[in-house]
Amino acid sequence: MLREETVFGPIYSRRLGTSLGINLLPEKGKICNFDCIYCECGWNRDGRGDTVLPTAAKVRHDLSNKLQDLYADNVKVDSITFSGDGESTLNPEFPQIIDDTLALRDQFAPSAKVSVLSNATRVHIPEVFAALRKVDNPIMKIDAPTNALIAKINNPAPGYDVQRVIESLKQFGGDFILQWCLLRSPEFDSTRDEVVLPMLDIIRTLHPREVMAYTIDRPTPAQNLQKVTPDEMRTLLKPLIDEGFAVQIKG
For tag attachment on the chain, is the N or C end more exposed, with fewer CB atoms within 10 Å? Predict the structure, then answer.
């Protein structure tokens, strides 16, 4: 399900409400340093027909026009969300685009939050972290606690190291949202102790202001994937809930 516009929506998001999307990747392709088995945009190999990234000037132009139209039509936006067809922080103009987006938000939709959905692989880059620190909702993903398990669900590019990601996320001082996708596949089960117990410890270490636990909701490129039910997720995360963590569960 590739987005064919740089600015798209608004659409309803399970986690963010009425969301105006921004795609910083190609309009007719996909660029990502993950190749997740559950990605609604499909496999990376199927999205290589377009490699043109939108410039900061194009994003600013398209977002300004869209926000002005929504303002004129009295359409309320809960979140301006960087999601798109891959990893948004791979766009080399990401820091400038964040600054432009915040300025346009303040002008046309001051009640909207600016959110970034990211796989957290580039938080260690100072200019990327500085940009993420400016947004209302930096939503960083960790789906498994070890490199071996992440290889089964996220298929990261060479060089990925979950411990480096964890150390990088400590820079937020807890002021971020951790998202965790739980599912079952023939080779991976998010509900097993080998996944859950160390994930709970990672969350305790990072102490994010919120945990977004969710499961698959749309067609996936890998076959035979199964959802984890909200009740199962609630049981698995009950220790954190009991400890006072803010946990959002979406089935």
Answer: N
